[in-house]
Design brief:
heterodimer, A: 11-stranded mixed beta sheet, two-stranded antiparallel ribbon, 14 helices, B: mainly alpha, globular
Chain lengths: 424, 88
């Protein structure tokens, strides 16, 4: 299918490593670690847990950074977010960065040609947990809960704050949600339905209930690493033991290249292709065949072969089965060239940002592109696959021409994106 | 109708006023008087529920929302809350 070319003109993120893009780029280059051992909150089950928490973030202070450039959206955000949950506040913070750096507003205010996609489902589980406890204790629940528990409510919040009135909805596909939303936006822009689309990977605000449930699935890692949390997340390493939750949100502004060039927007990268492939499987088990179909689908959409790819930002959650499956899929895709393609895993630094992961890690790809480097793989001491070209413990200089970004999710979701420097 | 409030009603009104200012972040507190309604002050439907719930919570009251619907102004809200407080 041919269509309009799609570029990225703005990006932003709040995560365990940084509260904005420049800090995130520096942390990636340094191979910084966001993982900490965190105590359960008072009166809550769970004990000590290794995770990558967002630290010292104040949504009100963060808004002040944008007051000069975007005064009206900031004023609306103060009202909309006052009694909102953590997830939507983090979505808005990332979106301010993306929209601000892209220079979209105020020119596009009120536009029906700018859409919004929010990646993720069940985003406000902590709010649900807290309101359930309030109700059980005979206390008043949050009057906004009737709107806030709907993930799609984030679309409305973002639309009101930034005065955007194009297409919009939320997109769910477990940990592939972020990639699915980029896939969807890419199609909207290629087909000409929109000129621009804000894609927000929303923070999955888990409660003790979801954490215990992931533990029961055997998916969560970190047990036994509480005294050295910085070593707990080990994608592709023989001692990997499950994913570590990372808090985070990410945002991208995607635009039709023609529209972006016409308004002189920054061109941070191009999305050459995107694909989604389903396994037909409700379990957390990954499938190399499905992952391969997604990667080949993205290449086919871009009209490229696997030989064009020189870097892979892997899904790589630090889960034994998931990491092994992705290695097998990458070996099948690249064949004899497997060792020549550089591979790294952003989750080793940020933890697993779940719904937001696909967006946060696409931000990481574009920041690496801009900075001319590939970030280190943390804790990759004994690679499970000796043939793949893993980046080592230090960042390496690189100027990839085609980047492959994978995103997979429980329930048989496989998605892949192909990114490249934007042609001037 | 006169908006003169008794001492205890005035006390409840001051509490309600603090909640109004908390909910309507950009409001000048001087604008919050017993004669004004929440709608006039720019509150949407959720803001109104929130002012009522926050006030009730602070006073340790549970009043059915239907009883608080359609009140003319903040003075009336303070009177009803005060009546429930007395009846407790």
């Amino acid at each position: 299918m041919q269509g309009a070319r799609v570029v990225v003109t703005g990006l932003g993120t709040v995560n365990a490593l940084a509260h904005e893009a420049a800090g995130f780029a520096a942390a990636l280059r340094a191979g910084a670690c966001g993982l900490r051992t965190v105590e359960a909150r008072e009166g809550e089950p769970g004990g000590r847990r290794v995770m990558a928490p967002i630290r010292e973030f104040s949504w009100q202070d963060d808004l002040q950074r944008h007051r000069e450039r975007l005064p009206e959206p900031v004023a609306r955000a103060r009202r909309v977010l006052r009694n909102a949950g953590e997830s939507v506040r983090l979505s808005v913070a990332a979106a301010f960065q993306a929209i601000g750096s892209a220079g979209l507003l105020p020119a596009a205010a009120g536009s029906e040609r700018v859409g919004i996609l929010v990646a993720g489902s069940n985003l406000q589980q902590r709010d649900t947990w807290e309101n359930t406890r309030r109700q059980a204790a005979g206390r008043a629940i949050n009057p906004r809960y009737g709107l806030a528990f709907l993930d799609s409510g984030q679309v409305g919040c973002l639309g009101e704050i930034f005065a955007l009135r194009g297409l919009g909805y939320s997109v769910g596909g477990a940990s592939a949600s972020g990639s699915l939303a980029i896939f969807q936006a890419w199609h909207w822009l290629r087909s000409g339905l929109l000129d621009a689309c804000l894609v927000v990977g929303a923070n999955s605000d888990l409660s003790p209930l979801e954490l215990e449930a992931f533990e029961l699935l055997g998916a969560l890692g970190g047990a036994g690493w509480e005294d050295r949390p910085e070593q707990a997340c080990r994608p592709f390493d023989r001692r990997h033991g499950g994913f570590l939750w990372g808090q985070g949100s990410g945002a991208l502004l995607l635009e039709r290249q023609e529209a972006a060039a016409a308004r002189g927007a920054p061109l941070l990268g191009e999305i050459l292709g995107a694909a989604v492939a389903m396994d037909g499987n409700h379990l957390p088990d990954s499938s190399a065949e499905g992952e391969l179909r997604a990667m080949r689908g993205a290449l086919a959409a871009a009209g490229l072969g696997p030989e064009a790819v020189d870097y892979v930002n892997a899904h790589a959650t630090s889960t034994p089965l998931g990491d092994e499956t992705e290695c097998a899929a990458l070996r099948s895709l690249f064949g004899a060239r497997a060792g020549a393609v550089r591979v790294n895993a952003t989750k080793g630094l940020t933890g697993h940002c779940l719904s937001a992961a696909g967006v946060v890690e696409t931000v990481a790809c574009l920041l690496q592109l801009e900075g001319g480097f590939l970030h280190p793989n943390r804790n990759l001491v004994e690679p499970i696959d000796p043939l793949l070209g893993f980046v080592g413990a230090r960042a390496e200089p690189a100027s990839p021409r085609v980047m492959l970004k994978n995103g997979f999710g429980f329930g048989g979701f496989n998605s892949s994106l192909l990114l490249a420097p934007a042609a001037a | 109708m006169s908006e003169t409030l008794t001492g205890s009603q005035q006390e409840v009104f001051e509490l309600v006023k603090s909640k109004v200012v908390e909910v309507l972040v950009d409001l000048d507190p001087g604008e919050v008087t017993p004669e004004r309604s929440l709608v006039e002050l720019g509150a949407n439907s959720l803001d109104r529920v929130e002012v009522a719930l926050l006030s009730m919570e602070a006073l340790e009251l549970r009043i059915p929302p239907s009883e608080l619907a359609g009140l003319a102004n903040l003075g009336e809200l303070a009177r009803i809350l005060n009546r429930h407080r007395d009846a407790r």
